[in-house]
Amino acid sequence: MELDYYEILEITQSADKDTIKKAYRKMALKYHPDRNQGDKEAEDKFKLVNEAYEVLSNDEKRAIYDRYGKDGLKGGGFGNTSGFGGFEDLGDIFSSFFGDGFGRSSRRKKTSDEKFASDLIVNLRLSFKEAIFGCKKNIDFVYKNSCKTCQGTGSKDGKLQTCPKCKGSGQVGISQGFITFAQTCPECKGSGESIREKCSDCKGKGYEEIKDQVEISIPEGVDSGMNLRVNSKGNISKNGSRGDLYVKIIVDEDRTFIRDENDIYIEYPVFFTQAILGQSVKVPTIRGEAVLNLPKGAKDGQRFVLEKEGVKDVHSSYIGNQIVQISIKFPNSLNDEQKELLEKLSESFGIKDGMHQEQKGFFEKIADWFKS
Ligand SMILES: [Zn+2]
Ligand SMILES: [Zn+2]
What we know:
With 372 residues, the chain is α+β, with helices and mostly antiparallel strands.
């Protein structure tokens, strides 16, 4: 039997946000691939835990899930939980909790004698349109290059000595009254090693910072939170190998269109006569315009789907839909002619003595009230 998202996180349906967060933290750590090398079951469980958290931590998705279950989430464009690069995204949720270097591949993890991670992340802001249709962008960034003079140590002779302040333990005792607290050594910042004399080339940092620029093609359909990897444009380690550059996408909102994954939503005004008559109306879309054929008597707030008028999926040829929610508008004022026409119309619907047939029905229904 399939477990539901609450069962996966071992919480109750009434759990608050904090509880969900804590449960996720616990379960994600337990099943993290780094801790369960080659364990397929743990890997599957880790994916499920992330999937459960993605839904339950989002009020809107949680409400849909509570009412309609997983199937409900498939409908409104919520179906694709894997995002860009699949598993890579799960790493992202994870690292936002635990910091970089744990959630990702071991490449980003810095080795103990390296002063920086080899992979680099830069944010890139895109307009709503740029994200939907793709574009080319020049990205300015600064990468670190391990100092050759000092072998990345920051020390003039290339050697590190045992930190004299903490004697290599990385911690020092601070006394407050009768109590002594252990604290990270301020001299070596906990590494236990220190520099006798700073390297003059890198001023003791162990690396130099270099400005760089790269032109990248943003594919059609990217969305906020996705990462694009640019091969070998990251930091250069001591051994000369260069890490990757990750470009994290941030997309601006639009004033007219609302995007939910590959679907586009728009609230569109429809004049009451158009709705009553079921006319065809022109609707703006992200690519121009489309025709919406209203049914006779379309209702305020009713939603219509314009197929394939949404965003092209970043991984496939699938194109999302545009969902048009109509809001029916009435005239604020009437001229004499319009007034006359509407009065005639009103009469033709059988409105007499201030009453319509449907209203009469109500009086008949409650007739018993007045008989005692
Ligand atoms: Zn120290
Ligand atoms: Zn140096």
